[in-house]
Amino acid sequence: MDITINLTDGVPIYRQIVNQVKYLVASGLLLPGEELPPIRTLALQLKVTPNTIVKAYGELEISGVVHKRRGSGTFVSDARPQLALRERRRIIEQRIDALLAEAHQLNFSGDDILRMLHERKAAMDAGTDEEPAEVKKK
Amino acid sequence: MGQTTVVDVNDLSRSFGSKRALDGVSFHATAGQVYGLVGANGAGKTTLIKHLLGLLRAATGSVRVFGLDPVRDPVGVLGRVGYLSEERELPEWMRIDELMAYTHAFHPTWDVTYARELIDTFALDPAKKIKDLSKGMRAQAGLVAAVAHRPALLILDEPSSGLDAVVRRDILDAIVRTVADDGRTVIFSSHLLEEVERMSDHVTLIHNGRVTLSGPLDEVRRGYQRSRVRFAEHFEQPPVLVGALAMEGGGRTWSVVHSGSLEQFHHSLLAFGGEVVDSRDATLEEIFLARAGRTRQPVEAV
Description:
- The structure holds two protein chains of two kinds.
- By secondary structure, chain A is mostly helical.
- Chain A contains five helices and two strands, in the order αααββαα.
- In chain A, a hairpin with a 5-residue loop joins strand 1 and strand 2.
- Helices cover about 30% and strands about 30% of the residues of chain B.
């Protein structure tokens, strides 16, 4: 399972695991019915205390993302669609918060950012139209 | 999750000459958890560990491991403890296989298959003498001797000190296996806060012989924030903000590690004409440096 632990931004490790598993489920990289790695395996992979994995899996179970089967393991639940919207929103909102903080520090107002967002979007949309032409030139 | 008490240290004090090495230290460990000890060199971590191993007798206070006094009952304690120290004191003249047989003799629970598996994994030559081993190989040999009897309590004193990334990883793997396989207990000291943050369920900060911070990692970290703040005017010295433990920076922009009431912090910041640029939870390293007084510290606000 593709999970990266980052110790520089102050987010507790179990929360990073919870967030990334939710993201993997929301984005369809983990499918309903798929089994998550056993606790020991993921702890060895991430070099974290096994109790952190226990805590993360427990939290994922409470929020209905995964379920445990007695004597076997932890599996992704079928609740994807409902989760997807909420998680997608949350992921984007985190990025927006970071953007607004950075903007504030560089003295851009909220309106400046909105305007720039529209400009960038327009430039990007134009870019996608132009790109195939550029590729053809090569 | 077991609530069995493995280590119970109460009000332990110790002096070497006029130096107070431990000052009223209490420390408790329950089964199935990983305990990280952090603090500067000479803060008292090794002195605490030596008391757990019965190498030092408690002058004031009490030390119990598995409910036993390690000085009075060394066999009952050490038989169930695996220990690896920074110095890795090993018999220099022994070959690796002799070291294994020797350690086996002291531990009826020695797992021959597990020991062989580890020696293979580390690619150690059993016929090699300890004195001919590199620093990393010594640590690996010491690690096999410390874990192959599957101790109920694994104690590692600065195990990663001076080792390369590969051997450090072997040591972390041994910690994970000890806890994951059958809920045994690990106490390790380290100056690598990243390791401590990854591997610990509980952390204890020892500073000048005293425990200044101790508890489950998530609880210890909760309530500490790191904020970047900006002021209208320049400051030569960091202004005194309510709840601020450490401030770094200069001029108009400062980075603050703070705890306590956010409202009071913001209020006192406002009084200096400052505002928060951004905030996030503080990392373990930021908290510990702030608590150990390593960064520029404003005079404590009332």
